[in-house]
Amino acid sequence: MKLEFLAPQTLQDAVTMAKARGGAARFIAGGTDLIIQARKSGAWPEAVINLQQIPGFGEIKGTGPNFSLGSLVTHRQIEREIRFAGALEALRESACVIGGHQVRNVATVGGNLCNASPAADMVPILLCLNAEVALAGSEGRRVVPLANFIEGPRKTVRASDEVMTEIAFAAPAQKFSSTFLKGGRRRAMEISIVAMAGVVSASPDGKMTDVRLAMGAAGPKAIRLTEAEKFLEGKVLSKDVLEETGMLAAAAASPIDDVRASASFRRHLAGVYARRVVELSWNRISELNDDRSAA
Amino acid sequence: MSELKQHDVSLTVNGKAETISVAPRASLADALRDTLGLTGTHIGCEHGVCGACTVLLDGKPVRSCLLFAVQAEGAVITTIEGIGDAQSPHPLQRAFNECHGLHCGFCTPGMIVTLSAFLKEHPQPTSDDVREAISGNLCMCTGYQNIVRSALRAAELIEGAKS
């Protein structure tokens, strides 16, 4: 079987090469998903177009509130990014549970999003941050909200000649913090049973505001928990509020049964993790501010 | 069947500049073993789970079964053969020997390569740190107790050599 390996040096060349081959070529970055999928299914693409030699897409930019991740930024870079320590901790928490060290050292955030696994761990927190992805293709450049980019399992709106170039997001304006939790049978090297990310802000009068929750691995694609978010607006943390949050999260889940967990267990976990994420995020807001006043 | 187009890849392996000719679909693990004869890099699962094929790419541990050899153009690769040998073993290799950190030895190259990068960043690790560091490496016989002990012992040996 023939496999053509192409290594363009510019974005334009990469797009032109993909365009010329119709849908028969696949872009490759870290390769940690593509190679496993091709080997397992035997369905090798006719060509792979390596994006790693194209300069300019491997950096994390911004000093807040606006940030952008180049699509070739690795999970290792995100988990070690000092700008995300503190309020944006959930980005580091998401990145540091993907694969093992050896995978995170090469696997890219662009690859994680384009691969569009329902259990992709970077997706929930990026949904919470209203991330937008930039795509460059033969028809030009466009920016798509991440929520619209992923359509379903392994399915995105990306055309076969479009390269994801960056992922942009803005931190919330008020005092906030974030949390990511992942349910699996062991702590490392695990595909999520349920993944939950949250961003919670505090209003000046000490109430929860601008609450954002997103859940992965509990349906065909990761989703924002809009019902729970609406419910939490303006609330003060209490046992009853958390209870209701958990019920709303479980109701929003549409999980499947598979080898990793039953649908009913996933739904149960969705509720548990929604409660924990909200509680932890809320507590982290005051911890972050205490740290600052202590320093 | 059409002719396979071979690619020339230039890379540095264990300090030595090499140019190898590989098929586009060859993994880095296959190229290291079959083309360069460096069979210390083991191929276990071939789908990114076991960690036996770990090598350092530009100083960072990666799974060589999940990289095309052609992706390593220009890279600096270190395999277990470049970590140390019988004449001048790396402190990790001494420690694995001393503390019975291996039994069948299949996972050992991956463990040692992974830990070599880890100990550079964490010269005084706790056993929990070590467990986290080898979370992407599986051992199916010795078990992890002696592997963790070996890593801690290696940290001591490295520290001792400094003073």
Report on the structure:
The complex is a heterodimer of chains A (295) and B (163). Chain A is 35% helix and 24% strand. Chain A is α+β, with helices and mostly antiparallel strands and 295 residues long. Chain A folds into 3 domains: 4-50, Uridine Diphospho-n-acetylenolpyruvylglucosamine Reductase, domain 2, CATH 3.30.43; 60-170, 2-Layer Sandwich (Uridine Diphospho-n-acetylenolpyruvylglucosamine Reductase, domain 3); 175-294, CO dehydrogenase flavoprotein, C-terminal domain (Enolase-like, domain 1), CATH 3.30.390. In chain A, a hairpin with a 2-residue loop joins strand 6 (132-137) and strand 7 (140-145). Chain A is globular and about 60 Å long. The relative contact order of chain A is 0.12. Chain B folds into 2 domains: 7-83, Roll (Ubiquitin-like (UB roll)), CATH 3.10.20.30; 91-162, DNA polymerase, domain 1 (Orthogonal Bundle), CATH 1.10.150. Chain B is built from 6 helices and 5 strands; from the N terminus they run E-E-H-E-E-E-H-H-H-H-H. A 5-stranded mixed sheet of chain B has the order 2-1-5-3-4, with helices on both faces. In chain B, helix 3 crosses helix 6.
Please summarize what this structure is.
The complex is a heterodimer of chains A (295) and B (163). Chain A has helices at residues 11-20, 34-41, 75-79, 89-95, 101-104, 109-115, 123-128, 146-149, 226-232, 239-252, 263-294, and strands at 4-6, 25-28, 47-50, 60-61, 66-70, 132-137, 140-145, 150-152, 155-156, 163-170, 176-183, 194-202, 208-216, 223-224.
Keywords summarizing the entry:
heterodimer, A: alpha+beta, Uridine Diphospho-n-acetylenolpyruvylglucosamine Reductase, domain 2, Uridine Diphospho-n-acetylenolpyruvylglucosamine Reductase, domain 3, Enolase-like, domain 1, five-stranded antiparallel beta sheet, 11 helices, 24% strand, B: 163 residues, alpha+beta, Ubiquitin-like (UB roll)
